[in-house]
Design brief:
- The chain is globular, with a radius of gyration of 13 Å.
- Helix 1 (16-28) crosses helix 5 (110-122) and helix 2 runs parallel beside helix 3 (64-74).
- A 5-stranded parallel β-sheet has the order 2-1-3-4-5, sandwiched between helices.
- The two termini are 25 Å apart.
- The protein has one domain (8-122): Response regulator (Rossmann fold).
- Strand 3, helix 3 and strand 4 form a beta-alpha-beta unit.
- 31% of the residues are buried.
- By secondary structure, the chain is α/β, with parallel strands linked by helices.
- It contains 5 helices and 5 strands, in the order βαβαβαβαβα.
- The protein has helices at residues 16-28, 39-45, 64-74, 87-96, 110-122; strands at 8-12, 32-36, 52-56, 79-84, 102-105.
Length: 123
């Protein structure tokens, strides 16, 4: 019997409470989540296979754009979604982000993120 594929999500968010909320919402939706508090930790986690990268753009140290570039280079099929509270950053991210990356502006509802992840993995 073929086992269903479990979609694995790499989550990079420096806000502890938001990271916890996002991880729990995605896990309740049936995804496996590896939650990282910063870009450095997220990059270290890339030795594992992930289907989706969900990252804040503005983080101390390595920002989400750089995490996404490294992730896209190491795992070319990975879907990428940015979340940010800074509209100007979201607009400029489009120029520097890997092709096909999605940008959601904070505040974002958990259901919206889960629905967007579902759309991304179905594509």
């Amino acid at each position: 019997m073929v086992q269903p594929v479990v979609i694995r999500i790499l989550l990079a968010e420096d806000d502890d409470s938001l990271r916890g909320f996002l991880a729990r919402a995605l896990e309740r939706a049936g995804y496996e989540v590896v939650a990282c508090p910063d870009g450095e930790t997220a990059i270290e986690a890339l030795d594992q296979i992930f289907h989706v990268l969900l990252t804040d753009i503005v983080m101390p140290g390595i920002d989400g754009i750089e995490v996404a570039r490294i992730a896209a280079a190491r795992q070319p099929g990975m879907r990428i979604m940015f979340i940010t509270g800074f509209a100007a950053v979201a607009l400029s991210a489009g120029d520097r982000a890997p092709a096909g990356a999605k940008v959601l502006a904070k505040p974002v509802h958990l259901r919206e993120i889960v629905a967007e992840v579902e759309r991304m993995v179905a594509a």
